[in-house]
Amino acid sequence: MDEHPIDLSPLDPAADPDRWERLVEAITKAAAPELARRAASRSVIAVIGHWLRPALAAGIVLAVAAGAALSLVQQKPEVRPVPMAGLEEALELGEPVSLWLSENRAPTKSDLLLALEGEAP
Amino acid sequence: MRDADARLVERARAGEASAFEELVRRHLRAAYAVALAVLREPADAEDVCQDAFLTALERLEECRRPDRFAAWLLQIVRNRALNLRRAQTVRWALPLEDVVGVAGRHDTGHQAERSELRARLLAAMEDLSEPQREALLLHDLEGWRHREVAAHLGVPESTARAYLFQARRRLRARLGAELMEEG
Q1: Residues near B155 by Cβ (< 8 Å), separated by ≥ 6?
Q2: Which of B14, B139, B171 faces A38 most closely, judged by CB atoms?
Q3: What helix, strand, coil percent values describe chain A, rounded to 5?
Q4: Which residue from B121, B17, B37, B142 is spatially nearest to B80, judged by alpha carbons?
Q5: pLDDT tens readout for residues B33-85
Q6: May I ask the CATH class of domain B1-92?
Q7: Domain boundaries along the sequence of chain A
Q8: How far is the C-alpha of A35 from the C-alpha of B22, rounded, in Å?
Q9: Domain ranges of chain B
Q10: Which residues of A touch B (CB under 8 A)?
Q11: Searching chain B, which residue's CA lies closest to the CA of residue A13?
């Protein structure tokens, strides 16, 4: 194998340092707008990141407060038992009938006789 | 080297100019060697390098392995150089003096001698295939190892060595013949 390198130094672009520096400068100068754009977009992200934690904390506090308020509003009102009395009064039912109703049972024969004939003398 | 590249890429992504400049200084020579291997014209190689670095910066998010930035960049360089070479087909049809023309007239003394040597080397390199030129420039000019050249070319190390061997032999034969003709 031909292991001896060929002297390619005349092709070395850095052999002329001024020219080389000009090339580096040309590249970095041309890249400046893109770098500035990147830096600006990163700074927006950084600002958002800076405010993210306090904003998150405030959000959590608000959410807790809103949840508590909502749970208070949505609490069901106390259910009061509707008094059954009144119906028999409205219908002007007599004593034995109101008794069946209040006891929630079917009248017996004696109850019916009592209701029809009234109280035994 | 690779870790340092990864850090520089990360900083360049954030728009840090000094990090980008460091990347340019680290890889410009290799980029130039690849571009020169394709184009064989120093001024064009410089243009392609500039273009490739800007493209790389704009697409920095596409570099999935920042630790392998150099390999990624050199692919961009090669593609840009090939595109330019295709576009130059018309320009190459012009008479040589119109193309080279003015630049040579300002050279004096050492500079002129150097330009002459450069022109000879570039002319001699025309006989080489593109992989041979890349292997030669990356190894003998940039000081890359065979393993690195092979990885860049995407070939086994033995093939990269063969490219280099053939390139050197052909170049020596061509330059030697020229010297004998002059003598």
Answers
A1: B131, B163
A2: B14
A3: 70, 0, 30
A4: B37
A5: 999 999 988 999 999 999 999 999 999 999 999 999 999 999 999 999 999 98
A6: mainly alpha
A7: 13-73, 87-117
A8: 14
A9: 1-92, 112-183
A10: 1-2, 4-6, 8-15, 23-24, 26-28, 30-32, 34-42
A11: B29
